[in-house]
Amino acid sequence: MQRSENIQVALRFRPLNVRESTKKDPEVWEISGDTTYLKPSWSERLMDSRKISISKAYTYNHCFSSQVSNEQVYQQTSRKVVEASLQGYNGTIIAYGQTGSGKTYTMMGSDGAELDKFYDKSFDNSESVKAKGIIILALEDLLKLVDSNKSKSCYLSCSYLEIYNEQIYDLLGEKDKITDTLIMQEEKGIGFYVRGLTEHVINSISDVEKLIKKGESNRHYAATAMNHHSSRSHTIFRVYVTSVSINTIAYDIGENITTESLLNFVDLAGSERVSSLQEAINPLETAVRFRVSRSPRETSKIRSSSTRRSIDTFVNEGKHINVSLFYLCQVISKLSQKHIIPDAHIPYRNSGLTKLLSTSLGGNALTCIICTATSTLSQFELTLSTLRFGGIAGSIQNVVKANVHSDKTNELLLSYQKDIEELRLKLSAYENEPRVVVVENEGVDATIGTDECDIRKILEERIKMLTGVLFNKRKIDDEPQAKELWSEGAGDLIVDTKLVGSKKLNDSLNTSADFALIRMKEMHKEKDKQQHYIEELEQKLQYLTDSKHNLTNDLKKSLQISQTETGKKLSYKQQLYKAQDQLAEKQKILQQTLESKDKEIKLLQDRLSLVENFVGLEKLSDTDLEFMERLYYQGLDMVKNVRFQKKYVKEIESLKSIIDKSSKNQENPSKTSEKDQPSILRGSILQISN
Ligand SMILES: Nc1ncnc2c1ncn2[C@@H]1O[C@H](COP(=O)(O)OP(=O)(O)OP(=O)(O)O)[C@@H](O)[C@H]1O
Predict the structure, then answer these.
(1) 70 lines ligand 1 (CB under 6 A)
(2) Three-state SS for 406?
(3) Does the pTM of the predicted model rise above 0.80?
(4) What distance in angstroms lies between residue 105's CA and the mean position of ligand 1's atoms?
(5) What atom of ligand 1 comes closest to residue 270's alpha carbon?
(6) Ligand 1 pocket, mutate which of 123, 127, 129, 228 (most atoms under 8 A from CB)
(7) Contact assessment for residue 225 and residue 231, using Cβ atoms and an 8 Å cutoff
(8) CA 20/CA 124 separation, integer angstroms
(9) At which positions is ATP bound (predicted)?
């Protein structure tokens, strides 16, 4: 079952070094609980002088002051990640921070961390003399847990790699191959892995110490051979944890639970600003200048010498570190926005570091980032950038899932374990009483008194036979009765750490064990392949389930849209029907009005014809008759008026002509007599004279 887990972030301040103390470099950050604050007396001043807006408080899962030990840091941050690895959870612990802030000290302890490189002064801190780092503390814990857990067989192995200027080196490889670069590959289902990286069995803490020592010595050797600064590379110490819990009830057919996980301990190279680079370069350049002043001829020689090369190398390293850390920040920043843009592309492929950390960042791993910083004013900007990085990283969610497999055919494994146990008993019996040893022969119980050589021979035969039965599948395929015993992948599960670690076994046992180990690795690969195939199928199934889910959602949406549209259509239809009804109603009313008007017209026409013909007047009501009477009188009056008007107009016309004539007669009076005047005019004239 998978679950989401936020990346855990812890902040750790280192104590001031001698130089900082002597220079009285003030501490501007302080810690309270899981929060670090900018001291109030500094916040205003810094904001004004740096012209930047600064968040005054940063909260993380844990905040550790400079007094806290590696052991305490381990207990609170990494222990649960380490423990979970035995349940099959991948885990990653990353140390991030500016150069000289204590990343290596945290991961490797005081032995690993160099003395303060730039200042060449050590810390006045008693713990720094012999503090164990998180890697050792984690493996001590793991080995203890493995030892105390009797129901599980566990197998631990490790690799140690370095990324320097984007090239990958195997720190546990053979010394003559240490400068060979390794290639990173990607396989579907597995992700990115380093081809040819050596893997080494861990049986005890001294194995780990030896391997780390070898890694560090290879690192220094490579640093000298390739002229690079060992602290200016990223290192990853990887621990592969395989556990098998076996159901041993009466050696019955039971179920094996196998868990596999990978623990990454990452010590990143420190980021630095240009001024710090300059600070480191200056002494080198001063040396060049000093020599120049003494001997000009030496100048060209020195310029092309190792000093010049050191400066170039130093700048080049810085460039690569900053670029790969920039890509790391980019990945972190994109992942932190996943809740806003779930399909956002995460640029893991930009650098080797992000490729290798792709499982740990946003993938299947419990991840813990320990941000190391310095609380002094001189490191203010770099600390601020580390604090911001931690703040963003803390919001990232990984989807973790235990890598657990179950296998039902464990009888072979059980019988193998039983035989190993018997062999071990016999061996210890032989060690304790070298002269009297009892060895059981194959299938038949027999007591054989024998010397050391014989016993070794018998044991060797026995181991050979068991190894053959277990690991040589081809041989077993030819033997029908043995075939039934064969359990695919069983070899992967069988690693008896005590057996592998025993110094008492002779060379032939080692050869058999080597053979078994090789076979086991082959089968491990085969099982991995099958596992990847299953994971691919699971992914496809997930993809199909997602597609189905998406399709169902799309269908639901379409259905909703079509339902809304149908609803709208229905309402439009209803509105249309209503409008049609209203129109029909109006048409009806209009029709009725027209009809009634027609009736009225007809009635009037009828009346008119009655009036015109004077027939049927008796049928009319009194009111109608009265109305008609009025109409007639009015008409009569009108006729009279018109006639009078006409007559009057004529009179006026004649009067006008008379007036014209009389005015002419006045000029000549004898020509007009009174009787020639019209009567109306005569009356008028009389009225006027009266
Ligand atoms: N918590 C601590 N207590 C005591 N000493 C410390 C602590 N942290 C760091 N130091 C000392 O500080 C110095 C620098 O630390 P360290 O080498 O771990 O830094 P770094 O971050 O790994 O640097 P770089 O990025 O350059 O590799 C070392 O001398 C180391 O011993």
Answers:
(1) no
(2) strand
(3) no
(4) 5
(5) 25
(6) 123
(7) no
(8) 12
(9) 97-104
| Annotated binding-site positions for ATP | 97-104
Q: How far is the CA of 109 from the centre of ligand 1 (A)?
A: 9
Q: What is the dihedral of CA 288, 220, 195, 365, to 10 degrees?
A: -100
State CA 454 to chain mean position distance.
Answer: 63
320 lines ligand 1 (CB under 6 A): no
C-alpha 510 – ligand 1 centre gap (Å): 42
Candidate of 16, 73, 104, 232 to mutate for ligand 1, largest count of ligand atoms within 8 Å of Cβ: 104
- 3-state SS, 471-522, equals HCHHHHHCCHHHHCCCCCCHHHHCCCHHHHHCCCCCHHHHHHHHHHHHHHHH
Say which residue the tokens 């374990």 belong to. Answer: 417
3-state secondary structure 52-86: CCCCCEEECCEEECCCCCHHHHHHHHHHHHHHHHC
Tell me how far apart the alpha carbons of residues 213 and 204 are, in angstroms, rounded to a whole number.
Answer: 14
CA dist., res. 410 & res. 414, Å (int): 6
Residue 386 half-sphere exposure, CB side, CA atoms within 13 Å?
A: 34
Q: What is the pLDDT at residue 476?
A: 35
How much distance in Å is there from the Cα of 116 to the middle of ligand 1? 7
Residue type (1 letter), 170: D
Pocket probe mutation, ligand 1, options 14, 71, 328, max atoms within 8 Å of Cβ: 14
Best mean pLDDT range from 66-75, 149-158, 387-396, 665-674: 66-75
Cβ(269) to ligand 1 under 6 A? yes
Tell me the percentage of the chain whose pLDDT exceeds 90. 23
In ligand 1, which atom is closest to the CA atom of 69?
A: 1
Residue nearest to atom 8 of ligand 1 (CA): 102
What is the atom index within ligand 1 of the atom nearest the CA of 372? 21
Q: Please tell me if the CB atom of residue 241 comes closer than 6 angstroms to any atom of ligand 1.
A: no
Distances (CA, A) of 675 to 286, 658, 659, 664, 681: 157, 12, 14, 17, 11
The residues pairing with 89 across neighbouring beta strands, listed in sequence order, are none
pLDDT tens-place string over residues 460-497: 556 555 555 444 333 333 333 333 333 333 333 333 33
Residue whose Cα lies nearest atom 24 of ligand 1: it is 99
Interval between CA 391 and ligand 1 midpoint (Å) = 22
**Residue 476 · residue 469 · CB < 8 Å:** yes
Joined tokens for residue 55: 């968040």
Work out the average pLDDT over 580-597.
91
Closest alpha carbon to 246 in 386, 465, 366, 417: 417
| Angle 540-546-552 from CA coordinates, rounded to 5° | 135
Q: How far apart are CA 99 and CA 268, in angstroms?
A: 9
Ligand 1 pocket, residue 132 CB under 6 Å: no
Decide: 382 in ligand 1 pocket, CB within 6 A: no
Short-list 533, 245, 519, CA closest to 406: 245
135: Cβ below 6 Å to ligand 1?
Answer: no
- Asked whether the predicted pLDDT for residue 274 surpasses 80, the reply is no
- CB 355 near ligand 1, within 6 Å: no
DSSP letter (8 states) at residue 27: B
- Confirm if 161 and 170 have CB atoms less than 8 A apart: yes
Using the predicted structure, report yes or no on whether residue 251 has a pLDDT greater than 50.
no
Complex ipTM, two decimals? 0.98
Distance CA 342, CA 354 (A): 19
| Strand boundaries in 356-452, DSSP class E | 366-373, 397-401, 404-407
Q: In sequence order, what are the residues at sequence separation of 6 or more whose Cβ sits closer than 8 angstroms to the Cβ of residue 186? A: 192, 193, 355
| AA identity, residue 260 | E
